[in-house]
Write a structure and sequence with these properties.
The complex is a heterodimer of chains A (436) and B (491). By secondary structure, chain A is α/β, with parallel strands linked by helices. Chain A has helices at residues 13-18, 22-31, 40-49, 80-85, 87-91, 111-118, 137-146, 157-165, 208-220, 227-250, 269-282, 303-327, 395-406, 411-415, and strands at residues 58-64, 74-76, 98-99, 104-106, 122-129, 175-178, 195-197, 289-294, 334-339, 344-348, 354-356, 360-365, 372-375, 393-394. Chain A has a domain at 56-200 and 261-415: Alkaline Phosphatase, subunit A, CATH 3.40.720. Helix content of chain A is 36%, strand content 14%. In chain A, a hairpin with a 4-residue loop joins strand 3 (98-99) and strand 4. The radius of gyration of chain A is 22 Å and the shape is globular. The model of chain A is unreliable at 1-53 and 429-436 (pLDDT under 50). With 491 residues, chain B is an all-alpha fold. Chain B contains 26 helices and four strands. Chain B has helices at residues 23-27, 36-48, 73-77, 90-101, 107-116, 118-127, 146-159, 163-175, 180-183, 189-200, 205-213, 216-221, 235-245, 253-263, 302-311, 315-327, 334-346, 351-360, 362-365, 377-387, 394-404, 426-442, 452-455, 463-471, 475-484, 486-489, and strands at residues 266-267, 279-280, 291-293, 296-298. In chain B, strand 3 and strand 4 form a beta hairpin. In chain B, helix 4 (90-101) packs parallel to helix 6, helix 7 packs across helix 21 and helix 17 packs antiparallel against helix 18 (351-360). The longest helix of chain B is centred in the C-terminal third of the chain and has 17 residues, at 426-442. The two termini of chain B are 27 Å apart. Chains A and B meet through helix 2, helix 3, helix 7, strand 7 and helix 9 of A and helix 2, helix 13, helix 21, helix 22 and helix 24 of B.
């Protein structure tokens, strides 16, 4: 960071620790539903608390927003029930699938992820959900973001992970949302500083340092209820610009050759977002937790082609991303995981689509993964009283494995309780400097 | 709680030559630390109303030379804790009202409004029928060019004599929302929807619910057009209850399913129908006997669904809270929302009555309300162009809207746009500053900036803004500082 970057970074930590109680006031105001701003004061408190980075592993969460139909992602090949429930959708889907074993196949548009599966680099967790599922997008997104099916928590599970394990003060690239304009719920935490980069090319102040310095001066001095928010936004912007610049200067070209065809898809913003993520990771920016989103999964109507397209976007983006990491020698460090607020109802509707469902399948991809199936695919013959699938793996089991094994964090501290283990990762993270 | 933070303040005021040439020197006088005052301000400002710096007077002919050092030290020390509300003054209240109901006002508009007085300005806002926008330039046949449509709306926001109608249309566009991607551009449906919300913006909720249910864009966006009684599509039914009227937790899953059946039967109009609303086709409707919806069992059709919603005690508070978050406060008191809700319901959900009550409520003009909202990207950018008298640059908005987080006719999801604090991130602060810079870069001449702190910022400035404006010695710099400052981003 440049020396000109002032503001929060010059704070004296002991002053904050002395007055640590104060930030309880801020927290209760937030709990009451007040503007959820990352809080400059609290950032400083936590900077003093947690300095240690556990290991240099990286997590990339891909949100499939709108409710991904996992029955068209990981497709049952043999189940006659599927054809009874979905005469149109199943007939056009199952025969085209890319078989993974005798029972399941990937969507026809997923050859890239299929190739990773063949190398043992894809874990599929079936039957993932939570008790008393909500069929509201917004409620269920919040459940997954906060890791709290009772819907009381407001902080995101990744935000909490940052707060409890990393010093994000002055290092806002610890957590980064790519390809969006605001902080996604999973990364939100009162005490975490998080970067948001919509588009790398426009992420910088036009008009030179004169404009940047003037903007910094006025935004850092904002009175009123949004003071911390405005300060954090400008401080984070400046720190991120500096980090990205440094990372870019450090980045070495990967050893591409004629056998490597590295093409991020142009039809989807997910491709650009993952390309940016790859640049941040391979450039040594220190980024740990990344979040990207592919939208459009709320397929109530004419699902067939739309969903196939989305699967193709996901596949091409992930395949290029993995290859990019691999060429830079970073693939061992990076775990890629999908999440979606819910799956679709097994029974199709009159519009050639599906309504909101419950239990879903989660894909985990990358070199850290122990490939294969985990959990159990819920029976299509034993639906619940809403006509939906019954879950058998709590989604927080997946978070737990990611936190404990991949990130070397204390999952119980973040999730509040322990869950059954789902061992989809190869080995515990090495060189864990975890908490005693 | 009181903390002495020892920031250098009240030390400004001597003129620099060409400040932008000497930023390093200037910066020594800027508040360099972000301190816990922000947090305290954030947590307590709603209740405390701490004094802060206000530049009430117009600063003569040489603003660069004005001195604030004479300001009482106590006031200066608390300066960044909260904004000093000027709203005890009638003119400040009128300015506040026009800022929240439009896109900023010109000096002439302000003068006219000051002469009318607050109450009559409210009457005028509420009672003036919305000015209809001109036809969309270049729109031929049924197809819609979204970029042209976006610019058409922005141009109307900039030109209209009734900006409040556009603010309400924008509110309803984010509430009863639809996006052009799902709706499609083969028919003018998304354009029709815009005209509809402008015309209906201040009507009653019952009529609006009937209209939104049969609005062709909405019928496509949330799939009512393809839902049938035999095989209902729940998309519209769920969002009608959860997002448009009652809010999550105030209905059961069974209500979603019952309403989906009760609402089924509408199809899109064909050319032969010569209609801009959906057409009911009995053969597509539900025929399977009584349904239980919100506790009532019996035959259920679209009217029944809407009446059930209007009978629910959850509906008025849900909508009123959203209106209040957009127009009054991000954290209103429950009893305020309840009071407005009771009136709203008693008025048979008359939106005009509601908005009048909102603007005439003490909460709208109290100290806590001042600068408690954040301008949406659209409001912000239109306000910038209006302040600079540069409506011809509306196309620049289309270059910046995506990375600032708000593209018209393209909300992120069926929840519309989140507001206030959600607008601000590391990404969007850059986008907002860059927009002002881009606009200024395109203008050869600028309106006089001498009184920009008064005309655009109420004369209520943070020490940092005050200092930078004080050092600026050309109009371009003064406009840059004023328009990118937090003061102008807030409302």
């Amino acid at each position: 960071m440049s020396k000109d970057l002032v503001g929060i970074n010059e704070l004296k930590r002991r002053d904050f620790l002395k007055h640590g109680l104060i930030f309880g006031t801020g927290a209760s105001a937030l709990a009451a539903g007040y503007a959820a701003v990352p809080d400059a004061f609290a950032r400083a408190v936590y900077a003093a608390k947690a300095e240690g980075v556990k290991n240099d592993n990286v997590l990339v969460m891909i949100q499939l927003a709108g409710g991904n139909d996992h029955l068209r992602t990981v497709i049952p090949l043999q189940d006659p029930k599927l054809h009874d429930l979905r005469p149109q959708l199943a007939a056009a889907t199952a025969p085209m699938a890319l078989p993974l074993n005798a029972s399941f196949g990937l969507n026809q548009n997923m050859p890239g992820i299929k190739a990773l599966w063949d190398q043992g680099k894809v874990a599929i967790v079936e039957g993932v959900g939570y008790p008393n599922p909500s069929f509201s997008h917004f409620e269920s997104i919040r459940v997954w973001e906060t890791g709290d099916p009772t819907r009381r928590q407001v902080e995101g599970w990744l935000g909490k992970t940052i707060t409890k394990n990393y010093d994000s003060m002055g290092h806002p690239l610890t957590g980064c949302a790519c390809g969006t304009t605001n902080v996604p719920g999973a990364l939100r935490d009162l005490h975490a500083t998080v970067s948001v980069i919509d588009n790398y090319r426009s992420f910088g102040f036009q008009g030179g340092s004169k404009v940047e310095n003037a903007a910094a001066a006025v935004w850092k001095g904002t009175p009123g209820i949004y003071g911390a928010l405005f300060d954090t936004a400008i401080s984070t912007a400046q720190a991120t610009i500096a980090s990205v610049k440094t990372a870019a200067s450090r980045q070495t070209n990967a050893k591409y050759n004629d056998n490597v065809k590295l093409v991020y898809p142009s039809k989807t913003e997910l491709g650009a977002a993952l390309q940016l993520a790859a640049a941040l990771i391979t450039g040594g920016s220190g980024v740990k937790l990344l979040h990207v989103t592919l939208g459009g999964f709320d397929t109530h109507q004419t699902e067939l082609n739309r969903h196939n397209d989305l699967m193709g976007y996901l596949d091409q983006s992930v395949a290029a991303f993995y290859q990019d990491l691999n060429e830079h020698g970073m693939a061992d460090k990076v775990l890629i995981a999908t999440w979606s607020e819910f799956s679709r109802r097994p029974q199709e509707n009159a519009s050639g689509g599906t309504d909101h469902g419950a239990a879903s399948a989660v894909l985990l991809m990358g070199n850290p993964v122990q490939g294969g199936f985990y959990g159990q695919a819920p029976s299509l013959a034993n639906l619940d009283n809403t006509g939906n699938l019954r879950y058998n793996v709590d989604f927080r089991s997946i978070y737990q494995e990611v936190l404990n094994t991949h990130l070397g964090a204390d999952a119980k501290e973040i999730l509040g309780q322990a869950f059954d283990r789902v061992p989809f990762l190869k080995a515990a993270a090495t060189a864990v400097a975890g908490k005693a | 709680m009181c903390f002495n933070t020892g920031d250098p303040m009240g030390v400004v005021g001597f003129p620099f030559n060409r400040w932008h040439m000497d930023m390093g020197r200037l910066e020594r006088f800027l508040p360099r630390k972000v301190t816990r005052r922000h947090v305290i301000g954030g947590a307590l400002a709603a209740g405390a109303g701490i004094t802060a710096l206000r530049l009430a007077g117009v600063h003569g002919s040489a603003p660069a030379a004005r001195k604030v050092a004479a300001a009482p030290k106590a006031a200066a020390a608390a300066a960044t804790s909260s904004w000093a509300s000027p709203l005890e003054k009638e003119t400040a209240r009128v300015t506040h009202l026009l800022r929240r109901t439009g896109f900023g006002a010109t000096p002439d508009e302000l003068d006219a409004a000051f002469k009318l007085g607050y109450g009559k300005v409210v009457d005028k806002l509420i009672e003036t029928p919305p000015a209809e926008p001109p036809p969309v330039p270049g729109m031929m046949g049924n197809g819609v060019d979204v970029q042209k449509l976006q610019q058409w709306w922005l141009d109307h926001m900039l030109a209209t004599p009734t900006p409040f109608a556009e603010r309400m249309t924008l509110f309803w566009h984010g509430h009863f929302t639809s996006d052009y991607r799902k709706v499609g551009t083969d028919q003018p449906y998304i354009y029709w929807q815009n005209l509809t919300w402008r015309r209906m913006a201040l009507t009653d909720l019952g009529s609006m619910l009937m209209k939104v249910t049969t609005d062709p864009a909405m019928m496509r966006y949330l799939d009512l057009a393809t839902s049938t009684g035999k095989s209902p599509n729940e998309n519209y039914s769920r969002e009608l209850l959860e997002l448009f009227t009652m809010g999550a937790g105030n209905f059961q899953e069974g209500d979603v399913r019952a309403a989906a059946r009760g609402l089924a039967g509408w199809r899109l109009p064909t050319a032969a129908d010569k209609s801009q609303t959906g057409v009911f086709d009995k053969r597509r409707a539900f025929t399977g006997g009584p349904l239980t919806f919100l506790g009532q069992t019996g035959p259920l059709d679209t009217n029944g669904v809407i009446n059930g919603i209007l009978a629910s005690p959850a509906t008025a508070p849900y909508l009123v809270a959203k209106i209040v978050h957009h127009f009054v406060s991000p954290a209103p008191e429950a009893r305020y929302v309840q009071r407005l809700s009771d009136e709203f319901r008693a008025s048979k959900y008359d939106v005009k009555t509601l908005m009048r009550s909102v603007f005439l409520s003490p909460e709208f003009i109290n100290t806590d309300s001042y600068r408690s909202l954040i301008k949406s990207p659209t409001e912000y950018m239109v306000s910038v162009l209006k302040a600079l008298k540069a409506p011809q640059l509306s196309k620049l908005i289309l270059d910046a809207d995506e990375t600032m987080g708000q593209m018209l006719f393209d909300p992120p999801d069926v929840g519309g746009w989140p507001n206030n604090d959600s607008w601000i991130s590391s990404n969007t602060v850059i986008a907002r500053v860059n927009f002002v810079n881009a606009v200024l870069g395109r203008l050869r001449s600028l309106p006089p900036a001498k009184d920009v702190h008064q005309l655009q910022l109420d004369g209520v400035l943070s020490p940092a803004t005050e200092k930078l404006l004080g050092q600026a010695n050309d109009d371009r710099t003064r406009w840059l500082v004023a328009l990118m400052a937090p003061e102008f981003n807030l409302k």
